[in-house]
Amino acid sequence: xxxxxxxxxxxxxxxxxxxxxxxxxxxxxxxxxxxxxxxxxxxxxxxxxxxxxxxxxxxxxxxxxxxxxxxxxxxxxxxxxxxxxxxxxxxxxxxxxxxxxxxxxxxxxxxxxxxxxxxxxxxxxxxxxxxxxxxxxxxxxxxxxxxxxxxxxxxxxxxxxxxxxxxxxxxxxxxxxxxxxxxxxxxxxxxxxxxxxxxxxxxxxxxxxx
Amino acid sequence: xxxxxxxxxxxxxxxxxxxxxxxxxxxxxxxxxxxxxxxxxxxxxxxxxxxxxxxxxxxxxxxxxxxxxxxxxxxxxxxxxxxxxxxxxxxxxxxxxxxxxxxxxxxxxxxxxxxxxxxxxxxxxxxxxxxxxxxxxxxxxxxxxxxxxxxxxxxxxxxxxxxxxxxxxxxxxxxxxxxxxxxxxxxxxxxxxxxxxxxxxxxxxxxxxx
Amino acid sequence: xxxxxxxxxxxxxxxxxxxxxxxxxxxxxxxxxxxxxxxxxxxxxxxxxxxxxxxxxxxxxxxxxxxxxxxxxxxxxxxxxxxxxxxxxxxxxxxxxxxxxxxxxxxxxxxxxxxxxxxxxxxxxxxxxxxxxxxxxxxxxxxxxxxxxxxxxxxxxxxxxxxxxxxxxxxxxxxxxxxxxxxxxxxxxxxxxxxxxxxxxxxxxxxxxx
Amino acid sequence: xxxxxxxxxxxxxxxxxxxxxxxxxxxxxxxxxxxxxxxxxxxxxxxxxxxxxxxxxxxxxxxxxxxxxxxxxxxxxxxxxxxxxxxxxxxxxxxxxxxxxxxxxxxxxxxxxxxxxxxxxxxxxxxxxxxxxxxxxxxxxxxxxxxxxxxxxxxxxxxxxxxxxxxxxxxxxxxxxxxxxxxxxxxxxxxxxxxxxxxxxxxxxxxxxx
DNA sequence: TATGAATGAGCTTTCATTCAT
DNA sequence: CATGAATGAAAGCTCATTCAT
Lengths: 210, 210, 210, 210
Known about the structure:
mainly alpha, Tetracycline Repressor, domain 2, 0% strand
C-alpha cells in the first residue's frame, strides 16, 4: 500500500477519458450502495461495463480508485467555491463564507452515502490528504479570502486561521450531512456553522463579547 | 452487522477481565502498527498471547474488537473531562472548555497512531457513533455545561450548540494530532480551537461584523 | 475417525444412565432441528444441561453420539418387532410381516426428521452397520421367521431372503416416511410394501395371494 | 442452501468444459478416498490441477460439487437404462427389469466407494432428490415400462408401483454393492432382486416364474 | 467426577491482480 | 489496447477436544 495513487497513464484521448469517467462513476455507485467492504474491482468493472483488465489499465490498484474519487470530489468542491465567489465579488467575509457553506452543504446532499464512504473510509489509505492538489487549491483560496479581509479579523496567523476554518467547516458539514446526520433542522445547523466561523474570525474585538 | 459491540459473555471473573483487556491492548497495538487492513484476528490473538478461539470467546467478530476499543476511548475521554471539571467547580465557560480541550489534546498525544485508526477507520462499521453510551455521556455533560452558563450565550438552541461544539472540538483535535497533524505549533492550534469555540458561544451577535 | 464408537465406560449407576440418556435425547433433538452440519458437541451439552466435559466422559467423540443414537433406534425397532410378534404367535408369514411393517412405519412417523438424519447421515461414519448388535438381532429374528415358514417359501436360501426382505423393508419404510416422503397415501404405500415382500417370498404358488 | 446445483457460469467452451470435468473427476476421487469429512475444496483443486479460485468459478460452494456428482451419476444411470432397453425392444417386463438391474449393478461395481459416499453422504444436503432432472427421467421411464405391460400387472396404481420398484431396486443394488456389500454371491443377490421386483409386479400368479 | 475456558488446526470462501489470447 | 479466466495468498471463524480447577 505504499505506492501513491497515481493513474498509470495520463489519459488524453477522449475515449480513455470517457473510460476513466465511467470507471469512477461505477466506483462511486458501488461504494455508495455497498460500502468499502462490499466493493471490489470486479464489481466496479462490471458496473462500468468494462473488463477488470481495463480498470487496471488506468488505475494501479483498488485504492487508487477511491483516491481518484476523493480528488474528483475535492475538485468539485473547489469549483463550487470559485463559482460562488465569482458571483459575489466585493462582499463581506461573513457573506462569502456563508455562501461557501451553503454551496458545499447543497453539494454534499446529493450523494450523502458516497460522501460517508469517502470521508469515513478514505483517509485510511496512507495517502496524506494534503497531498491532494485540489485540497491545496481550496486551502489557498480560503487563505486568500482571509487576507482580503485581514483588517477585520481577530486571528492574526492567517495560515492557522485558514486551517481552522477549513477543518471545522468540512467536518461540521460532513457531520451534518453524512448519515445519520444532524438531529437538528438542516437550516439551523447550517446557520450554526456559519456563526461558528464568523464568531471565530470576528469574535473578540466587540467590547460586549466578554 | 448492526448489533456488534456486545461481548459474547460478560466477563466478571478477574481472569476473564484480564483476558479481555489484553486482547483489547493487543488490538490497539496491531491497529496502530499495521492499520485496519493489516490487522487480523490471528495477529491480535498472537500478540495478546492467547489463541484465536479465546478472542472469539469474548468478541463475536473482528469488528467488535474495534468497536470495543472505540468505546474504551470514549469512556476515557469522558473520564478525563469529568476529572478536569471536578477540579474547577465554579469557573467561566471559556476556562472550562479550554481545560477540556487541553486535557483531550494531551490524551490524544499519547497514541496518535491508534487514534488515527480509531477515528479514521472505525466509523465505517455501520455502528452509529451515537449509540455509544460514553459518547452520550459526553454530549450530556457538554449540554449541561452550556446550560449552566446559558445567560452569557449567543446560541439559544443549546442542543444544537452542544452538537456544534462537540463536533468541531473533536474534529479539530483529531486533525491537529492525528498524523500528519497540524502544520502549526501545537499550543497555537490549541488556542485557536478554544478561540473558535468561545467565538461561537459568546461571539457574533454584532450586526457590524464585516 | 478410525476408532469405534464404543462408550468410554459402561454406565451402570442410575445417575450415569440418566446422564447418558439425557445426552442422547439432546443429540436427537439438535440433530432433528439442525441436521448433522448444524450439530456440535457444545450445543448438545448445553441442550442436555451438562458440560461438554461430561459428554466426553461417556462418549469418546462426536460421532459416537450418533452411533449410539442409531443403536438405540435399532434396539427400539427390535423391541417393537418382538412385541408385535409376541401378540400373534401362530399366524401366517404374511400377517406377521404386515404387522412388523405397520409397527415400524408407526414408529418412524414419530420423529421423521431425526430418522432422516440418522438414516441419511449416519452411514458415513466408518462404523460397519452390521456390527450393531441390535441389527444382528433383527436379522436373526427375521431369519427365524422365514425358517418357521420355510415350506411355503419360493426362495430357498433363507439367509439371502432375510437380507433382501430386511433391506427392502427398511429402505421402503425410510423412503416413505423420511421427508419428503411418499407422494402416495401412506396406507397404500404400506400395503405395497407388504405386497412386495409377500410377492417375493411366496412367489406364485398361492392363487389367493392378492 | 436450497438452490445449489447451478454452476456459476454455464461452460460452453471446450476448455471450461474440460475444467469442470476435471474438477468433478477430482471430487469423485477425493470423495472416494477420504469420504465427505476428509474432503475439502483445496484438496479437490489440487487433485484437479487447478487453483481453488477456479473451483469457485464454476461451483458456488463445496456442496454443489457433490450435487453435481450426484446428478452426473443419475444421468449415467438413466443413459445405461435407455441403452439396455434400446437393445431389447419387445421383450417381457421381467426380462427388461432384469436387464436394468444387471446394467446398474455392473455400473455400480466400477467405483463402489464413490457410490457409497454419494448414496450415503449426499442426501444430507437438503437438496430433494426428486428435484434432479435425471432422477425424474428415470422415474418416468420406469413408469412408461409398467404401462406398456399394464395387463400382466397385479398393482393397479402404476405411479405407486413405479415408486416402489425404483426405491427397492436402487436400495437393494446399493446395499449389495456399497461396502461392506452383500454377504452373498453377487449373482444370487442380483437374481433375488429381480425375483423380488417380479414377485411384486406379477404377484406370482405365473407358475413359470421361478 | 464435573466443569467450561482455552486451544488451534483447519476449512470455506473472497478478491486483487496477472497475463495469455 | 481490451479481455476475463485463472490464480492463490490470506482471512475470518468454527468446533472437537483437552485439562486445570
